[in-house]
Design a protein that fits this description.
This is protein-serine/threonine phosphatase. It holds the Pfam family FHA. InterPro entries: FHA_dom, PP2C, PP2C_BS, PPM-type-like_dom_sf, PPM-type_phosphatase-like_dom, SMAD_FHA_dom_sf. Keywords: Hydrolase, Magnesium, Manganese, Membrane, Metal-binding, Protein phosphatase, Transmembrane, Transmembrane helix. Its cofactor is Mn(2+); Mg(2+). By secondary structure, the chain is α+β, with helices and mostly antiparallel strands. Among the domains are: 116 residues, Sandwich (Tumour Suppressor Smad4); 272 residues, PPM-type phosphatase domain (Phosphatase 2c, domain 1). Helix content is 28%, strand content 24%. The protein contains 14 helices and 31 strands. The strands form seven sheets. Strands 18, 19, 20, 21, 22, 25, 26, 27 and 31 form a nine-stranded antiparallel β-sheet that branches. Helix 7 crosses helix 9 and helix 13 packs across helix 14. The longest helix has 37 residues. It starts with a helix and ends with a strand. About 24% of the residues have low confidence.
């Protein structure tokens, strides 16, 4: 009996021990899940990463001019700008540069200012999550001290690496550049978030818009490109215009998760130090990665700013929260260039709607206007267009050369390009070329002139063209190789498989845009035309003009936004991009804009 009791007691103790071990294991698993899911160290380890508090720092003043104090805190760069604005989804490049935003607070000495322009040395003490640390002194002379140190020692050796870092030969000279001499070398920077939680966000800035520069990327205001991504630091990275070297430069602002440029890290080698990385040159077509999922596409164009003889409004929306809440990837790219570089009386306006990805649309939107400009640099061809009032050959050659230059085998895009030019008497003419279903029409004297042709497989014109090839479509056949378009740019693979595909553009008639005729042009991707007819679009334009009879400067932008709102109201299920051109107004706008 006693032995049985002992066995029972031993069994109970063993069961209790096993239960305790199981509870401990469950607690450990819960702790691990919490740690890796919520990363609590981000909220507790900032002070140690930024800088340890030393004895006597509590008595330091908030702002100091002391050189020794600045030397002690030389790793904490400060900025001479007061950030106030947020990033807007539609960057207002078509308006004159705004007066709010980055307000210049302090002028550096001439020597430090010159080097700051050349090396783009600006900084911030910590992530906005921390606020101001106890004992931290905000300094006016830290930037100056850092610049003097750069003057003595030059750039770090790692700036000679293959990511377009500046070299010793690129260091700025001791004289301030003459801004008048380079006024014709301004640049237009456009950023488009192509993946991540903020996909579809975009903004643009001119190199001459000092009120908006430097442009910051981060998770919290006042970052100009505001990214709702918890893996992005509050102030993650910064883009500046280097006036000495006439280039855009990207610098990591001591972010926790680092910054990649074309998959190469550009942050400081020791991410825990929260020190800034070195400035890296940006080029058109680059991809910036912040966090792990947010990719930002870079487009850079040279331009001059001048009086444009008509109003321009451009806007786009991926229409993300459609199809039952599913986010749509943004595959549209819209752009305009007025005037074309070196060809003052010609300009282009275009939309590319990608499928299978945005790669082909990006390529076409870059190559196509370049091809038009290259062809028109030939004075003989240019004069032939002006005197003959016909640009059919130019447009046809540009599309052919663009298709030959593209290397997109599994991605394709529509392409609609409106070419506008003026003769010696300031008479304006317009002609359009397109492949795909991104449509354009011109309204003049109350009459609509269709400038494009629909190239869906189901359209009558395409069925007739395909039948002429000798391989007619079967009854009920609405797609070729799974695509509903028979003409596009790119898609090299399916074109090799089926000869019925084509990249030959439809060329419209030339339209003479009469003065005081109320003429306007509207280009849009099929996201608009799926839910809005030409007639309805004209009604919206007339109604908006009637509501704003005295406004001319921003009227084109308002009309473009009204069109976009109508597409939202009608619950379009596709990316929507719109360009509205009001030939009855005159305004000063930036001569280039690209909106992926």
């Amino acid at each position: 009996m006693a032995m049985l009791q002992s066995i029972v007691v031993f069994t109970l103790l063993l069961l209790m021990l096993i239960l305790i071990i199981i509870i401990i294991i469950i607690i450990i698993i819960i702790i691990i899940i919490i740690v890796f899911a919520f990363k609590p160290w981000r909220f507790f380890s900032y002070p140690s990463r930024c800088r340890a508090i030393k004895v006597g720092e509590l008595e330091r003043p908030l702002v100091s001019n002391d050189v020794d104090l600045a030397q002690d805190q030389s790793n904490d760069l400060t900025r001479n700008y007061d950030l106030e604005g947020e990033c807007h989804l539609n960057a207002a490049l078509l308006r004159p540069p705004r007066t709010q935003g980055l307000v210049h607070k302090q002028r550096l000495s001439s020597a430090s200012s010159r080097l700051a322009l050349g090396d783009s040395v600006v900084g911030d003490v910590s992530d906005p999550l921390d606020g101001i640390l106890v004992g931290q002194t905000l300094k006016r002379r830290v930037v100056t001290e850092h610049l003097v140190e750069l003057q003595k020692h030059g750039r770090p050796e790692n700036q000679s690496q293959n990511l377009r870092f500046g070299t010793e030969n690129d260091r700025p000279q001791e004289s301030v550049p003459n801004t008048d001499a380079i006024s014709d070398q301004r640049s237009c920077l456009s950023l488009q978030v192509v993946s991540g939680p903020s996909c579809g966000l975009h903004c643009s800035v001119l190199s001459t818009s000092t009120a908006r520069l430097p442009l910051t990327l981060g998770r919290v205001p006042p970052s100009y490109l505001l990214l709702k991504d918890y893996e992005v630091s509050g102030k993650h990275a910064m883009i500046t215009w280097n006036l000495n070297k006439l280039r855009w430069e990207l610098v990591d602002m001591g972010s926790l998760n680092g910054t990649l440029l074309n998959s190469h890290p550009i942050n400081h080698p020791d991410p825990g130090s929260r020190l800034w990385g070195d400035p890296v040159e940006l080029a058109s077509g680059d991809t910036i990665t912040v966090g792990t999922t947010s990719n930002i596409y870079v487009h850079i164009s040279s331009h001059n700013e001048r009086l444009v003889p008509f109003g321009v409004g451009m806007t786009s929306d991926p229409m993300s929260l459609r199809r039952g809440g599913k986010k749509l990837p943004m595959e549209d790219v819209c752009y305009y260039h007025w005037p074309l570089p070196g060809i003052y009386q010609f300009g282009v306006f275009g939309i590319c709607d990608g499928h299978g990805g945005v790669g082909a649309a990006k390529s076409a939107s870059k190559i196509l206007p370049e091809m038009v400009a290259t062809i028109l640099t030939d004075s003989v061809k240019r004069e032939r267009v002006v005197s003959g009032q016909d640009a059919s050959d130019v447009l046809r050659d540009a599309f052919s050369q663009t298709e030959a230059s593209m290397n997109n085998y599994y991605e394709g895009c529509t392409a609609t390009l409106l070419l506008v030019w003026a003769d010696a008497d300031e008479n304006f003419f317009a002609q359009c070329a397109n492949v795909g279903d991104s449509a354009c029409f011109i309204n003049m004297d109350g009459k609509q002139i269709k400038m494009t042709e629909d190239h869906k497989v189901t359209s009558c014109s395409e069925r007739l063209r395909i039948e002429g090839i000798g391989e007619p479509l079967k009854d009920g056949e609405t797609r070729l190789c799974g695509l509903n378009l028979a003409r596009m740019l790119g898609d090299k693979f399916v074109k090799q498989q089926d000869s019925r595909f084509s990249s030959e553009p439809y060329i419209s008639q030339v339209v003479h845009l009469k003065k005081s005729s109320g003429a306007f042009a509207l280009l849009a991707s099929d996201g608009l035309w799926d839910v809005v007819s030409f007639k309805k679009a004209v009604q919206l334009v007339v109604q908006t003009r009637e509501r704003h009879p005295t406004e001319t400067e921003n009227l084109a932008e308002k009309i473009a936004e009204v069109m976009l709102d109508e597409a939202r109201t009608q619950r379009t299920k596709d990316n929507t991009s719109i360009i509205f051109i009001d030939f009855d107004s005159i305004s000063t706008v930036s001569s280039c804009k690209v909106r992926p």
